[in-house]
């Protein structure tokens, strides 16, 4: 059965409102925000990835879910498959310590299991956070007329993966974006109040925007030419439509996608400036459904593959 | 690296008091109790186990950790490896629904991942609970002079596993104990106040008692003849020392091991009677360290293997 079919079955038993219909980045139980992600060798990370970077990413992707709900992290629990490789295990713990110190998140506990020889390394992480006093924004809160925003730059991590696979000449900015995503925790907390809807971009800007549109019953209109691309990406790729579509469908960005009343724009810019985070308006929400793409005022058909499906 | 070595390294970064030095059944963060356990096919469950029973056990073992801290469950997050086997996945969801309804615990969220063909099924579960108002008992609270107690009967699940492996003629009581452990949630919550120390018996009564002794800096003296054995077990095994040592080192019991002032005995018996749970005194704590075993007033050397090491 596909992941979507399985989640549909799970949804039939996840009837508590705290589960948010299994359709948000995290569960919201009273003032707690809870998320759990697993990563599997060969599926979510390359077998030759550095263990420090695997640990970093395992934590960062979960903290990014907390960021998307405006939550302040309270701690994490780790589920670890012992690999039988002493150097690997030791380097993983070093990376885990590094990312937890960077975001000042305590390691609370977890579990360690042996795995059969040859089995892929499988790790899980649960992150617990405190919801903002004004409530955790949902994916489903978009209102027609909202301005759509995204933090940081898009597509660097996807290009970093292509570099890791030897398809593109490497540069450190894109490799770092792929290996060491930076969850937008401070910005997510600061912005939680003005926003109407927020989620993190993990599978690709377009597929995640599509999910936000579906959850909200709105259409998200995105102007592809406004999607923020880094100098490092534009040093390797020309600024043409194909580059922008590739960046917007690559995934692994761990930036925040959010919408707010257009009257909130100056507040949002002030918060972004104070935290030294780029926040860029990329379109508007309207009545309708799905995503509507334009590039320099030309309507563009959405690509068949909107992002990473898993 | 061994699990113990790995946990020792993790401990060096798990310095927050909420982690309880990674030496308790669960983390205790303010009034929250948090636990995460993973299970791996071929390691923690047999490849031909019924998926409903795998789901039951995944939830039950985590709820048992909450029970050991006297916590009331608030919800769970599940990490699921899609198996590619539609019947298996569907039966797992049914079993998950069944155990969550039985203990009235909401499914809050989680993650679903694809795994490479042939990889062992690996599942994780995080359970969140509310600590008792008087605080969550630790493993480390034993005081010399305490009476040592255990709930239910010991060794049934271990015998059930032997039955599953075709080593012993099957009976339903022991098979059920193996397949569908019953976490002592109500008793754990009711008893949290009088007890000095509490943990659940997962790897074997003796190894878990040894861990409690180490955490507390006390000696736990256990009278093997008092360990409660079920009629179903005694129908298959004679009541001799070897049977009692086998039961006390088999694991998978998910009963509660706890200590309290001997003056609390009548309160404990009253709580047990009210909840229809067996609670049996099995010895006393003293000054010293480790476990001290006797059988009908004869000193017995602890067996080399005290339980399931992993």
Give me the secondary-structure topology.
The structure is a homodimer of 310-residue chains.
Chain A: H1 3-13, E1 27-29, E2 32-40, H2 51-68, E3 72-82, H3 86-103, E4 107-114, E5 122-130, E6 147-151, H4 156-164, H5 172-179, H6 185-191, E7 197-201, H7 205-216, E8 219-223, H8 231-234, H9 241-250, E9 255-260, H10 265-275, E10 279-286, E11 290-295, E12 298-300
Parallel strand pairs in A: 3-4, 8-11
Antiparallel strand pairs in A: 1-2, 2-5, 3-5, 6-9, 6-10, 7-9, 8-10, 11-12
Description:
The structure is a homodimer of 310-residue chains. Chain A is an alpha+beta fold. Chain A folds into 2 domains: 3-130, PurM-like, N-terminal domain (60s Ribosomal Protein L30, Chain: A); 139-300, PurM-like C-terminal domain (Phosphoribosyl-aminoimidazole Synthetase, Chain A, domain 2, Alpha-Beta Complex), CATH 3.90.650. Chain A is 35% helix and 25% strand. Chain A has helices at 3-13, 51-68, 86-103, 156-164, 172-179, 185-191, 205-216, 231-234, 241-250, 265-275; strands spanning 27-29, 32-40, 72-82, 107-114, 122-130, 147-151, 197-201, 219-223, 255-260, 279-286, 290-295, 298-300. In chain A, strands 7-9-6-10-8-11-12 form a 7-stranded mixed sheet. In chain A, helix 2 runs parallel beside helix 6, helix 4 (156-164) crosses helix 5 (172-179) and helix 6 packs antiparallel against helix 10 (265-275). At the A-B interface, helix 1, strand 2, strand 3, helix 3 and strand 4 of A face helix 1, strand 2, strand 3, helix 3 and strand 4 of B. Chains A, B: Pathway: Cofactor biosynthesis; thiamine diphosphate biosynthesis; thiamine diphosphate from thiamine phosphate: step 1/1. Chains A, B: Mg(2+) 4 binds at residues 25, 35, 65. Chains A, B: ATP binds at residues 110-111, 139, 202.
């Amino acid at each position: 059965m596909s992941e979507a079919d399985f989640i549909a079955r799970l949804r039939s038993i996840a009837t508590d409102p705290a589960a948010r219909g299994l359709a948000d980045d995290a569960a919201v139980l009273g003032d707690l925000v809870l998320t759990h992600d697993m990563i599997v060798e060969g599926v979510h990370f390359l077998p030759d990835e550095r263990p420090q970077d695997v640990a970093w990413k395992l934590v960062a992707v979960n903290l990014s879910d907390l960021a998307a709900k405006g939550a302040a992290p309270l701690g994490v629990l780790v589920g670890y498959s012992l690999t039988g490789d002493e150097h690997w295990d030791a380097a993983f713990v070093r990376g885990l310590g590094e990312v937890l110190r960077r975001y000042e998140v305590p390691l609370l506990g977890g579990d360690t299991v042996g795995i059969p020889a040859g089995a892929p390394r499988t790790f899980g992480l649960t992150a617990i956070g405190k919801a903002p006093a004004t409530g955790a924004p949902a994916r489903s809160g978009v209102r027609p007329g909202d301005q759509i925003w995204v933090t940081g730059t898009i597509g660097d991590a996807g290009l970093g993966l292509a570099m890791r696979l030897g398809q593109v000449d490497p540069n450190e900015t894109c490799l770092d974006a792929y290996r060491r995503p930076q969850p937008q925790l401070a910005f997510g907390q600061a912005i939680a109040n003005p926003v109407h809807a927020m989620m993190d971009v993990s599978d690709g800007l377009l597929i995640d925007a599509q999910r936000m549109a579906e959850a909200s019953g709105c259409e998200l209109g995105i102007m592809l030419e406004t999607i923020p691309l880094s100098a490092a990406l534009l040093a390797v790729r020309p600024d043409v439509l194909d580059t922008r579509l590739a960046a917007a469908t690559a995934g692994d960005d761990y930036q925040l996608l959010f919408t707010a009343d257009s009257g909130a724009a100056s507040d949002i810019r002030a918060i972004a400036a104070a935290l030294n985070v780029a926040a860029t308006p990329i379109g508007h929400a309207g009545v309708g459904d799905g995503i509507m793409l334009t590039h320099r005022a030309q309507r563009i058909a959405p690509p068949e593959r909107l992002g990473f499906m898993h």
